[in-house]
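Reagents: none. Just compute today. ATPase domain protein, prokaryote domain protein.
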Amino acid sequence: MKSKRYFNTTGFCMPERHYMIDPLRNQKIIFDLIEKTQYFTIHAPRQTGKTTLLHELAHRLNKEGNYISVVFSVESAGYRSITEEIANKKIINSLYSSSGQYLNKKNCPIPPEKYTKDLTLENYLIDWAISQTKPIVLLLDEIDSLYDDVLVSVLRQLRNGFQIRPKRFPSTVALVGLRDVREYKTKVRPSEVSLGSGSPFNIKAESILLGTFTKEEITELYSQHTKDTGQIFLKEVVDRIYELTGGQPWLVNAIAREIVVKILNEDFTKKITLDHVESAKENIIQRRDTHLDSLIDKLKEERVKNIVSAIINGDGVLFDNYDDSLLYCRDLGIISETKPIRIANEIYREIIPRVLNRNLQDSIEEEGETKWYIKSNGKLDMDKLLKAFQEFYSENSEVWLERFDYKEAGPHLLLMAFLQRVINGGGRINREMAVGTGRTDLLIEFNGDKFVLELKLKRMPSARQKGLDQISRYLDTLGMTKGYLILFEIKPSSIIPWETRVKWEDISHQNKNITIVEM
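Predicted 3D structure written out:
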């Protein structure tokens, strides 16, 4: 039986069309703030359910009958060259056109073309509030799309009206976007414009960050599909999807949709397996859907580059604006909300290195896949693969490292690009990267075998000894006794020539068999 509902990956969710869990399930705080006539902000990365939550909230408030509520976007005023006057008109037009989706005619504001006073957002909202018997809850989406004077103007007008709410101004205003309100400062020229206070929106009572799905919520979401179709997402499948996605809502829906629609062609009699999950992950990464492309665009920004480089290398963070950069990356959903600081989920950990070394990967793939690194029994010859990389690195690294935008993370990215052929051959690479660890750990799975590689930059003379101790502890956690410690020399080859820096050594350390690969 074909299901009437489906897993949604575009636009906001509607319960009659899409599998979804109540976006307001954990949001008692929002209703408390509305009851107390407070202003607040909601922020979350793209495609985590912000707009779905806003629509559900507005419809629920209107249905209950104590408030009138409208969601509208200010994105039409979100370009740098716009004047304040034109921006006001665009924002007001957006508000008016959206109001018809939520309210009957008598509760809507007056059409802007019939407004006889000076057409500012502040005046328009004052007259609308005065004309209504119920308090207004106004939900402004895409607030952080505004720039400079326009952003300041909107925030200032809302702050002016705050003093005369709820009779003569909206009772509650929520500003909704990708970033918390503290970030609005960075979009305003600090020396030229000011709101006249330490905070750009100091009337807010609360800043709400929308979280990711828990494993239980993913189970609840997928059980709706099971109820409609009889097709089951087994616990082991849900567990693996949670590992891959970290509960990121778009990814959770995208993986399920890829399996159900693309891989199994909506044949609900077929069993969903772990192999289907891995295929879905790879398909989504290879296709680079809009969600992943928007994530990738952010990698070009300096603040993001600082954090991501530190994560890939395992470095500590040595720059002044560490806190702001860190919070910014968290708001964008690139890194996890909990310590240690790492890339937010396994899919992001997979796609970010691939994107950063895409040109090199393409170059390697053009050489042809001769499978020279596969033994006659189909197993991976890791020694052969790493010795080939040593040779490749000594011949090509100086040229390639200059091309990398992420120069600090260049050696690690070069090796990951070289190892990409393992994934292309049907293997899997699990990457463990976190700020402050001093290394990156790779667990490579291929045809039933597992290989542990630890990557470390030789910043200090103690790097080798620390690396040996670290990989021994990591092997202990995996219950393994064999591993590879990859040491990259960061001094130029003019100081330490290649013939002395390229080394291969098999040693025993803490009852582990470690191959030290230096270059």
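The two ends are 59 Å apart (CA to CA).
Action item: order primers for follow-up constructs.
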